[in-house]
Amino acid sequence: MTIRQRRQQLGYSQTTLAQRAEVTQGWISRLENRVENPTLNSLTQIAKALDVEVIDLLSPRPDDHAASY
């Protein structure tokens, strides 16, 4: 699953997720649009904010072999 999918599933805005993960909304946007790559630490924060395991955010998307963040 992607961060965007899980965020939307929970009904969170980018701002809400950013506040919960203690990062900026702009960074969440860049991450969801694959402009930025997360560090392990930030990915851990986001996974915790989304109530999932980090591995859930790293599983490949069906349409490509890259990480799905």
Helices and strands, with pairings:
Blueprint: H1 3-10, H2 14-21, H3 25-32, H4 40-50, H5 54-58
Helix pairs in contact: 2-3, 2-4
Q: Keyphrases for this structure?
A:
5 helices; 69 residues; single chain; mainly alpha; globular
SS field, number of helical segments: 5
Helix content: 55-70%
Counting DSSP E segments of at least 2 residues, the number of strands comes to 0
Overall geometric form:
globular
User: So what's the oligomer here?
Assistant: single chain
pLDDT averaged residue by residue: 89
Radius of gyration: 11 Å
Distance between the termini: 8 Å
Largest sheet: none
Beta-strand fraction estimate: under 5%
| Main structural class | mainly alpha
Which residue ranges are poorly predicted, with pLDDT under 50 across at least 5 consecutive positions?
Answer: none
H-E order: HHHHH
Quick take:
With 69 residues, this protein is an all-alpha fold. Helix content is 58%, strand content 0%. It is globular, with a radius of gyration of 11 Å.
What does this structure look like?
- With 69 residues, the protein is mainly alpha-helical.
- Helices cover 58% and strands 0% of the residues.
- It has helices at residues 3-10, 14-21, 25-32, 40-50, 54-58.
- The longest helix is centred in the middle third of the chain and has 11 residues, at 40-50.
- It is globular, with a radius of gyration of 11 Å.
- The termini are close together.
